Amino acid sequence: MSEPSSPLAGLRVLDLSRLLPGPYATLVLADLGATVDTVEDPDVGDATRHMPPHRDGEGALYYGLHRNKRSLTLNLKTPEGRDALLRLVSHYDVLVESFRPGVMDKLGVGEAVLRQKNPRLIYCAISGYGQTGPDRLKAGHDLNYVARAGLLGYGGEAGGAPAFPGVQMADIGGGSLFALVGILAALHERERTGVGRFVDVSMTDGALAFLHLHLASRLFMGTEGSPLQRGSEALNGGFPSYGLYRTADDRWLAVGALEPKFFGALCAKLGRPELLDDAYSGGEAGARVKAELTRVFASQPLAHWREQLSGAEFCVEPVAEGDEVLADPQLRARGLFVETDDAQRGIRVTHLLTPLRMGDVALRPPPTLGQHSRVILEDAGFTAEEISRLIA
């Protein structure tokens, strides 16, 4: 028998999570071949179904997060919904939820109860501040978590305001990706022990991991070091060789020529090789280098610099704006954007694939609310009468 082309073929995931962190994690699992069944509220479904922008009345955010999944509607606040989940869980390898700590216990389907039904279950809980600690029940969103973790305060110009993040770093980086690491590690452990594990993912903890390099250095130096400073350190704006520069047509260049060999090549190309001498100096010397680079880059439009600095040894990239990323030849060559026909809705859609692909990627359209309730319950052994009652 040939090996399945998808590495997670046969893995069954029950997804009770909402919004972004959990659904993106299970999207990656689904793209890798896992069967992912999303449990939704029968009245409204996942909130992203209703968030703008809409296309033919359907939320684009939901569409982007739920391809390759199946939808089951259950009201977990009712005895029937709770009992159905308790019967279902024995058929799954992984359960993902993103409620506040304690909510699943109040519903009567907490980790201890579910593990009695399925000792092999990997139970992954994603929350803002984790399952322990004084603030575990505190409400929050991505901006709160990156603020609390010190990530927000580290970005921006020295002496200025923190830089507002354009993307959800705690949700995806701190939540989704660490959930995936925990789930896959627990699955590997289960091969050895036969027993599942509880995976506690805190988005704030995960956001803090983005500061690992900087905080590790700070902690190692102890009293000899200094606290992290916004906009004045090597990788957050302090070095002239690692920063953002405006062009003559009000576009931007990202200069990441951190090593002397790269910055030296850049300075030579600009006709200013002497700038390398003070590229890693602080104070006035470093400020003079930065001011000169600002002047040089502001003298020509982006197209000029794109042509001049297109070589492999400069570590300079234009800052993509708007839809430019969709036409990027490198990203296109990597196959990250794939167009398909959604026959169910009668539309053509471009998918942004998840970066980790290890085989054929199925591109089944996202389900309508409760579309697969009957088949999921049938597979779990529910009778036709039981299914009719639950769907009703």
- Characterize the biggest β-sheet: 6 strands, parallel
Portion of residues in beta strands equals 15-25%
Helicity range of the residues?
Answer: 25-40%
Structural class computed from helices and strand pairing: alpha/beta
Number of strands: 13
| Shape verdict | elongated
The CA-CA distance between the termini, in Å, is 42 Å
Note the run of SSEs as H and E: EHEEEHEHEHHEHHHEHHHEEHHHEHEEHH
* Low-confidence parts: none
For the CA atoms, what is the radius of gyration?
25 Å
Q: How many helices does DSSP assign? A: 17
Kindly report the spatial arrangement of strands forming the biggest sheet. 5-2-1-6-7-8
Average pLDDT across residues?
94
Walkthrough of the structure:
- The chain contains 17 helices and 13 strands.
- The model has no long low-confidence stretch (mean pLDDT about 95).
- It starts with 11 loop residues before the first strand and ends with a helix.
- The strands form 4 sheets. A 6-stranded parallel beta sheet has the order 5-2-1-6-7-8, sandwiched between helices.
- By secondary structure, the protein is α/β, with parallel strands linked by helices.
- About 40% of the residues lie in helices and about 15% in strands.
